[in-house]
Amino acid sequence: MVARYSDLINLFINNRSKIIIPSNTIIFFDKEEIFNQINNSFWKMSNFKKLKTSQKKLKKRDIAFYYLTYDELNNIDKYQFKFNNDSPKFNELYFKLDDYNENIIKYYTYDNFIRYSEDYNYDFFVYLFTYFGLKSMRWSYTNAHNNNKQNDTNSNIGIRDQKSEFQYSTNETSDKSIGIEGCKNFENIGSHYYFDCCERRTLWYSYSRIDIDDIVKKLLYKSKRYSYKYYENNESLQIRLDNRLRGAKQICYEICNNTHHKIIISKMIKISNNFANIGIKLNSTNVDTKSYTKKYSINFWDIRDMELITLEDILSNYTNCNSKIDIYRVNSRYEELSMNGIVTLDRQLEIITDKIRIQKLKSNRLSKRNLETIENGIPYKNKFLNNFDSFEI
Length: 393
Hints:
This protein is an alpha+beta fold. The protein is built from 13 helices and 9 strands. It starts with a helix and ends in a 7-residue tail after the last helix.
């Protein structure tokens, strides 16, 4: 009967040792530890029922779980799966980075997930919007650090082969926050893509507006890091790009971390508290949940300035440009913008010249006043004494 129970438990555990299927949240448990914890217990079937109950709770919370040996854990395909950019560990809760990379699936523990997902979103934004006249990005970052310390203690009562257990837990929390500010500037390199699909059409266009989705697909097609699927599933990126195509020169927005992942951690802690004695637990009793707020200020080049650089590029490389572009209109528009630029520079030069003239007059007037003060003041005595040697008696 005992052997039959052991075989049943072993079969049940092995059923969760299947090929890993990508999931949003995943955790690995030590198969041998769980089997030994249950099989060596006086209440085998009671703990076995606990194991099945814990599985139901994990499934209900959309946490994918697998029972593996140490060798099986280390033999997970490292070319397809990355866990904190390394090998996975037992009892660590991992979150999938939604970069839609079909070749490499990246998982991170909570703090790393928050950092890498936001970094990826920022890098994606910069990569895409530099093609549409990005001038500068400024951001402020506030990070609140909450340390939730879960102390789970198992105490044994009774004789060795008929032990009973009870479990209790205590919570300790500490909070601290930091703030970071930064900026990044970009040169005006013009943008064919912007003028291919922007809302406001100009005279040098001889073709209809190109759909923005087609242009984004083209830009992301050859990229190994960024995919069109990420853009397609990121509404905030689409809205901001649409704002830019409608002529926006500045976009401000705020990002707060998604509380969804914190909720999953909280649920996993509860499961760990209830079933730690059979091996269903988090690896660490210290769970750091960091919340952050990022405020972005995104600035774009003035459309006319960007248009001038774009036209210069077209005229310099007109043989490689879109055949539908009317090169005569391009040349006419370039001369118009160049002349406007020269007139603007002349006005600025007049203003600067006038400021220089005023500053010189002010400087000469103040210098003359200082000389008169010196001659009428105390230094005048020194002047008298210097002339005393020439005084005849």
